[in-house]
Amino acid sequence: MYERIRNLRVDKDLTQYQMAEYLNCSQRVYSNYERGEVDVPTQILIKLADFHKTNIDYLLNRTKYKKPYPPS
């Protein structure tokens, strides 16, 4: 999971600091998410999926399909 979060950020040429600002956390906390040192809270996973236009299952490495789920 952590590698996917990092790769999505890098693909958009964003820094950890920029992602941390979007997620309203510190760069250090975001770095810990990417390295897998702390579990990513559900609300952060939702924000990451929305930001990267993907689904949470993709972030959690449960599927290889990046497409977001259709709105309910």
From TrEMBL:
Pfam families hit by this protein: HTH_3
Keyword field contains Kinase: no
GO molecular function: DNA binding
Keywords: DNA-binding
Keyword Oxidoreductase attributed: no
Protein name (record): Transcriptional regulator
Organism: Anaerocolumna cellulosilytica
Classification of source organism: Bacteria, Bacillati, Bacillota, Clostridia, Lachnospirales
